[in-house]
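Handout, tutorial session.
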Amino acid sequence: MAQAIRLCPLVGLVSRRVTPNTKWSLTLIRPRNFSTINNSKSSKNDVSQSENIRYWETFEAELRQLTLIQRYKKMAKEFWYVGIPVVGVTSALWLASFYLIAASGYVKPLVAKLRDYGVHETIAKTLESEKMGPLAIAVIMYKLASPARYAVSIAGTVKAIKFLLKRGLIKPVPPKDKLKEIVLKKVSGKSKTP
């Protein structure tokens, strides 16, 4: 009896057997549950995950009391390593979408909407000008959308930080006094070893 075994990433092992009657039969083997192998590691992750969630809840309570710009600055200071990629991606998406709007010729209906919102007439005339290229129009619209861009960047950063903390992929930065302790322990530990 010949056997052919293949690995299927979604289901597990898929085994095809040729029976003596030369009919194909398909056997699905369930993938092994690897979460029960190292219980010590998983309990350690559960503790650090609960610490991360507690930290995030206090951090979020502090954020609610601040203005939009203050939130932006605080998030940039404490979670810069998450905020910079999020802001870069969202800014690129904003600029690309405004470029597509400008390049496809939907500027005039957009300018009419901007006039309804009270944009100054000189800006509206500049956007409608024939001399302006699509990139220049995109940059002007990008600058006009700054408050919305900041809000989207903050919301995206908050979502990314929550996601990464929940998964245990990042750890919150400890307070200054605890950080000094950690650095002093590492320095004193290195000086003792030859």
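The second record follows below. Compare its token runs with those of the first.
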Amino acid sequence: MDFSEYGTLSEEWVDFEKNNSEAAGWTLDIGGGDPVKLQAQGNIMTAAMGRAKLERSGLWAVVEFEDYTATSRDGYAIPVRCYRPKAARGRTLPAHVHYHGGGYTTGDLETDECYCVAWAHALSAAVVSVNYRHTPQVSGLVPFHDAIDAFDWIAGHAAALGADPERLTVGGISAGGGLAAAVVVHEVRQALAGGAAARVRGQVLAIPNVVQEFPFERFADRGRTSLVQCAGSPLLPKIFYDYMVGLLRAGHDTPANHPTWNPGLVEDEVLRSIPPTAMLVCGSDLLRDEGLMYASRLRDAGVPTKVHIFDGMPHGFYLFDQLASTTRWEEIVRESTRWAGSKEGEWFVEVPPQKP
């Protein structure tokens, strides 16, 4: 495999960077050595950007939410927030479970709220956001276990959420994409072991981190893999990626090849039973190749798979509304979420649209 053709930064990004050097060159400061301060910095900044986006949209006028708590295997109370269109009160809706990004360190219910509100409104769906635990407060498989346990709670409490248990999809961005993929692999394994159908109808993986042990042997040339080609790309340079991975692996002995945090390398027997998968990938992104490798494996195994590559765009470019590609990104995420949860010939009952 070789996906290096997508790695050169696009003219759109280069032009944006020239005119917005401070924003385009932004990344969290890892030089201070305090991951808790880094975490707070990231959450404050991302939540502020999201609030501004929501205020401009006016969507709070037509979407409401309720908070719940799921219990993890070690007794931790996992915060869960369910967003629904106000016009759909009393209706049972398809549901999408979302896991935010942030390198397993940053992110919470507020940082991705603007996306969840927009999806609930546009898709006539219940969107359930999960605030799994983060590094440095935890490490190892804890975020993955939280993601799995929260999904189990959501599926078991679908009626209370006004969600249709037969129409559950999962998705996530970056680290959250890896958690979503791990949830799906776990669900499929459980279903195969018990002779039942998996509870996930489809998944949407956006710029996901699906391997902790990169399979260089699967690629034509190590030097053209995204880990090498995109080591200095904006927003997620390799030095920052390595720092985040270091926090995730600190203080425990979980091997890098452990299957839970390597859903992209799942064994073929399980791979064939993965539900329909939509994959969104940025061309100039360290995580490009693991996403496209997983999508290729799914396609070759006969899994319905749709892939969107944002040629020459860096990881997380969609944070900037000034980019034309951000509008396209948002359109594709919405369309992919609907696609992942649909079956051929299925009828969709739309909630009458309300203008903000």
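Points raised in discussion: The chain has one domain: 4-340.
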